[in-house]
Amino acid sequence: MSINSEAELEGMKRAGAVVAKALAAMKAAVKPGVTPAQLNDICGEVFAEHNAVSAPYLEYGAPAHAFVSVNADVVHGLPTDRPLEPGDVVKLDVTPNVGGFVADAALTVVVPPASKIAERLVACTEAAFWAAMKAAQAGRPLYAIGRAVEREVKRRGFHVIRELAGHGVGRAIHEVPEVLNFYYPNNLTKLTEGLVLAVEPMVATKVGRINTRTDGWTIGARSGTLTAHYEHTVVITQGRPLVLTA
Question: Which CATH code is given to the segment(s) 6-243?
Fold first, then answer.
C-alpha cells in the first residue's frame, strides 16, 4: 500500500507495534528445550491482548499464529513440538492483521551456545537489511534495495536465497511490488514516498535450491545449510525509511 493519510499511518504503526511486542516476547523465550509450538503460543497471547489475528491464517489458512523455521528451513515453518537444541538457528516470522492493517517482520535467534558461523550469518543478514535502508529512498529505483542487500551478503561471504523476496504490504500480506534481494537492473520502478514495503534479506551458508517441505508450508534449503531471515515493514520517505516494526 501507499500511505495517504494520518489515519493510515497510525493504523500501520499499531500493527507494527504488535509485531515488535510479539517478536520480543518470542525471542526472550528461545532456549534449549523450548518448542516452536510454545513460541507460537506466546505469539498468540500477544495477538489476543491487542485484538490481532494472524494475517497468514486469514488470507491463506495457515494453521499458526507465527511461523518458526529452524536451521535449513528458511520461512513459513509450521511450529512443531521438537524441542530446540543448543546451536539451532531459529527464524521467527510474525504477521498480524490489526484492524485491517498488516505489518510483517522477522528475526533470527541462535539457541546458545552459537557457533561462529551462525553468529556471522545472523550478523550478515541484519547488516544486509540496514544496508538496504541506506538505499531505499523516494525517487531511487527499486533495484537499489536488492543491490545493497546482495553487496553486503557477498562481502561477508554468504549467499542470497534468490528464489525468495520481499514485497509490498499494508492491507494484505503480499502486495506489489516484489522486492528482490539481488541486483536486477531491469527493474526501474521508482520508490515513492509513502510506499510500504516488507524488506527481508534471506541468506544461506551454502548455494542451493530451496523446496517446500512435506507439510506444504515450510520452505527450506538442503540439509546441512544454515539460513537466516531478517525483516521489517518500512515506509519509504525522502530520507531514511520509517521502520514500523522495530
Answer: 3.90.230.10
Question: What is the DSSP annotation of 140-198?
Answer: SBTHHHHHHHHHHHHHTT-EE-TT--EEE-SSSSSEEEEE-SS--TT--PBP-TTBEEE
- Report whether 93 belongs to an annotated binding site: yes
Is 200 annotated as a binding-site member?
A: yes
Per residue in 58-110, pLDDT (tens digit) is 999 999 999 999 999 999 999 999 999 999 999 999 999 999 999 999 999 99
pTM, rounded to two decimals: 0.98
State yes or no: 167 annotated in a binding site: yes
Q: Is the dihedral of CA 109, 229, 40, 38 positive or negative?
A: negative
- The one-letter amino acid at 188: L
**What b-and-e string marks burial along 141-161, b requiring 16 or more CB atoms within 10 Å of the CB?**
bbbbbbbbbbbbbeeeebbbb
Q: In what order do the strands lie in the sheet with 66-70?
A: 66-70, 89-94, 105-110
Long-range contacts of 75-79, Cβ-Cβ distance < 8 Å, separation of 24 or more: 75/106, 75/164, 75/202, 75/218, 75/219, 75/229, 76/217, 76/218, 76/219, 77/36, 77/217, 77/218, 77/220, 78/215, 78/217, 78/218, 79/35, 79/36, 79/37, 79/39, 79/40
| 50 annotated as belonging to a binding site for a ligand | no
The two beta strands, 96-98 and 101-102, are antiparallel
Question: Is 215 annotated as ligand-binding?
Answer: no
In order of 18, 19, 107, the CA distances from 50 in angstroms are 7, 10, 21
**Domain residue ranges in the chain:** 6-243
